[in-house]
Amino acid sequence: MNLHAEASGRGRPLVLLHGWGFHSGIWGGLAERLARGRRLIRVDLPGHGHSADSDFASLDGLVDDIAAAIPDEALVAGWSLGGLAALRLATRHRAKVRALALIAETDQPLAHVAAATGFTTQSQLTTVFRRATGFTPAAYRRGRRGSKSA
User: Fold this and answer.
1) CA-based nearest residue to 79, from 48, 106, 102
2) Torsion sign over Cα 84, 53, 2, 17
3) pLDDT at position 150
4) HSE-up (13 A, CA, CB side) for residue 98
5) Which residues of the chain fall below pLDDT 50?
6) Measuring CA to CA, how many Å separate 3 from each of 39, 92, 101, 103, 104?
């Protein structure tokens, strides 16, 4: 299946995967901020936005469709269902994922996520989040967007 993907900007690829029931437009103004210095690729998951419905029977089928739509060595950020897909993409199509940012995708500890993806520490995951968003996860939770301190 061909997924709808919108690309903009130049630089290292950053793929954004939205959550269930939404579409790539959910990234809105954040996408514009993230696109600075990057090639931003916003993917509509099957049956969402401009992507057609799909008859894939598993998360692996979804991930295979995503892999076909994105370049190798991308930073992949996923929220909710998009996060689950990003995590599986990192394990199933390792060449596609240079770095991974997961937003509310699982209740698993970050150490488990790191072990499953090959990213070895929570520190690496935090660094990826900071690079993608401009703030640390802890600062974000405290409502101090833009803060570089934990």
Assistant:
1) 102
2) negative
3) 41
4) 14
5) 144-150
6) 18, 18, 21, 21, 23
Q: Are 117 and 87 in contact (CB under 8 A)?
A: yes
**Count of C-beta atoms within a 10 Å radius of residue 71:** 14
Alpha-carbon Rg for the chain, nearest whole angstrom, is 14
Q: 10 Å Cβ neighbour count for 124?
A: 16
Strand residues in 9-128 grouped as ranges (E): 12-17, 38-43, 74-79, 97-103
Domains located in the chain, CATH noted: 5-141 (3.40.50.1820)
The one-letter amino acid code at 105 reads E
**One-character DSSP codes across 131-149:** HHHSS-HHHHHTT-TT---
Distance, CA of 141 to CA of 44 (rounded, Å): 27
What per-residue confidence (pLDDT) applies to 96?
A: 96
Crossing angle of helices 81-92 and 59-69, rounded to 10°: 80
